[in-house]
Structure prediction request, 386 residues.
Amino acid sequence: MKIVIAADSFKGSNSAQNVVSIIRRGILKVFPQAETVLLPVADGGEGTVDALLSAAGGDEYFETVLDPLGRPVQAKYGILPNRTAVIETAAASGLTLLAEDERDPLSATTYGTGQLMVKALEQGCRKIVLGLGGSATNDGGAGMAQALGVSLLDENGLELPFGGKALARLKTIDLRRVHPALAQCQIVLACDVQNRLCGSQGASAVYGPQKGAGEADILLLDQALFHYAAVIREQLGQDVASIPGSGAAGGLAAGLLAFCQANIQSGVDTILDALEFEKHLQDADLVITGEGRIDSQSVNGKVPIGVARRSKAVRDIPVIAVVGDIGADAQVVYQYGIDAIMGSVSRVMTLPEVLQNASQSLEECVERMMRLIRIGMALSSASNLR
Prediction:
């Protein structure tokens, strides 16, 4: 039996690398002779650097850059053997870098992400894959642009301070000091978000609340981003606000589209392409995927759906999703190639207990699942003998 294990991280408990290893342990308890293929996957958020380094090789680097509030932080990025840099927005500009009471989307900046891009350019990288998940920011990528040498000036010719709130005062965009290597660099945005920059489904309205924005903040930020987009359209000739996905990472995507001529690609497909996923499916009997929580939102570019879609396209291989939590509306994923869902939490536990026991619970869940598969195989064999 050949089983391909292609899973995302269970955020808060296990990395994607740990998840696939734990699933393998559960399989081998029941089928010790099984052939297993371990493929840690990400969708552009946490784990993107590790997944691509695992797939292609390369080296990881750490740089001191500014966090969302302008404080020094050590941020990791990777460089693949072909000199492609892989950067996660969350490493320098992520929500997990802030305590809950520190969240401040009015002033949070993507400057640190821009600093990582500069480091990659200085190392000779001329392609950057940038994962857009997990940001704490709502600045339209203004901080990122400033780190790359773009000047964003108010009516007095003064540089705007950090944060989305300041964009309401933007008067002039000055590109004269942009990093000279940027023009020769291809920027690929690994992202599955389709939200545009502004409006009721825009960056501020949809993602602002989880970053600490109240109702008044959301209105202010949305108006500031609308003005920012208008100035970009007038001075650079680019209507970034109309592009699906421009609202990703608090509008960081819009800034990358405007100042870096970036291209948006599906996050999970970017990773699966790098893994040469279809090659591993040859002769596979089963695919096991997973993530921390599965629900109706999982159909919007999450790892299990991307894995299932491509597995079915190859040979209609059975796909099981092993998850930490199953949303009440999760059944919709059955329409997208998932054949079964297995929840790893088997008894009543508090959230701290769930996280503390996450590895053991996941391994036990997979063992139970494999025992059911063994029963099914026995029943099928018995039926064929009749």
